[in-house]
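// run 5 | inverse folding | seed 20
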């Protein structure tokens, strides 16, 4: 059963451990990274806040200050999620990440985030350690059939080692991007753009 009806409001999470994600094959550290869908990124389902198998969850008015990896990860089954009015400063990897399960070429019965709102957040200094980081990152997340759309709006994203907004694949569609301000990205790499 999914966890339901929880709000996380007005807290600060700061200076969490760096998640380098390196290690010898066969070790727990090595297996934290997954290659998803048709994109070129490997990701870790680890974050200062990990939301998985959830419904009706809100994160609002929080501050994520120099978390070692990703600030907020929304993983697998997740619907009616609101991430609003947060400040995410200098995360080691990504600001907000939406990740479904590996689709294996089909969208049938694939647990994935949908009906997620990421709005009015300030995200800066992304990718302190991981050069694939971005303010917002999505893979195997989107709306299928009559599922609610995902909305990414009114966010400010700047000072990124690489991308500002990254959509790793076109799974499901139904993600709406509007009125986001994205600038000063691609500061440490040249193979891409602020929106990728």
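// decoded
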């Amino acid at each position: 059963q999914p966890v339901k009806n929880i709000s996380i409001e007005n807290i600060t999470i700061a200076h969490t451990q760096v998640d380098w994600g390196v290690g010898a094959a066969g070790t727990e550290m090595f297996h934290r990274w997954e290659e998803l869908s048709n994109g070129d990124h490997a990701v870790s389902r680890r974050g200062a806040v990990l939301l998985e198998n959830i419904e009706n969850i809100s994160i609002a008015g929080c501050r994520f200050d120099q978390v070692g990896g990703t600030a907020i990860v929304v993983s697998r089954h997740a619907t009616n999620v609101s991430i609003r009015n947060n400040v995410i400063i200098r995360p080691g990897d990504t600001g907000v990440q939406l990740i479904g399960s590996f689709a294996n070429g089909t969208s049938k019965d694939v647990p994935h985030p949908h009906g997620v709102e990421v709005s009015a957040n300030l995200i800066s200094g992304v990718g302190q350690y991981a050069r694939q980081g971005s303010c917002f990152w999505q893979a195997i997340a989107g709306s299928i059939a009559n599922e609610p759309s995902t909305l990414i709006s009114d966010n400010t994203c700047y000072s990124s080692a690489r991308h500002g907004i990254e959509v790793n694949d076109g799974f499901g569609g139904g993600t709406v991007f509007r009125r986001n301000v994205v600038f000063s990205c691609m500061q440490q790499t040249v193979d891409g753009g602020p929106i990728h």
